[in-house]
Amino acid sequence: MKKAMERDILFEEFAPLIESMLRRYGTDPEIRSDLPGEIYFRLNHFLDLYDPSRGVPLRAYLIRQLSASIFTYARSRWRVKEKEAEWGELEMIRELDRAVDPSADWNENIVLSDLITKLPDALSQLSERQREVVGLRYFDSLSYDHIAERLGISVSTARSLMRHAIKRLRGWFAEAAYSY
Q: Which one of 30, 52, 84 terminates a domain?
């Protein structure tokens, strides 16, 4: 009983150090609520381990061991918190990064600008009918039915012309990109 009272008195004497640790490491409400009990537990643990024959003063020993131990405890809890971060929070952080760092948009704009400047050369590589189908589909936003009706061809022919035109355009752009 007497030993428990001595430990409680010692715990009260360490109140300034404990308050400092609470302020420094109790950044999260959950950790802040657990810290006083953890500090008390570890203080008692270090008192049990204390060996006066080593010649180290009790207070210095407790301050050193307790400070390092509580930092390690808080750091492990911070790491657990980081791992528990929800994907929604991570996605929000990524969105904020994108808003702050416009380089992703710059890259897209550069590629788009390059594509627009090379498009007339690429379209000139297509046959007349393929150019007409591409123009009607992408510039006039017509359906394949309307393209077929306007050009006097079947719908399957319009689709086939578009498929071959896109294949040829992809090949042309791939060669253009490779030539850099």
A: 84
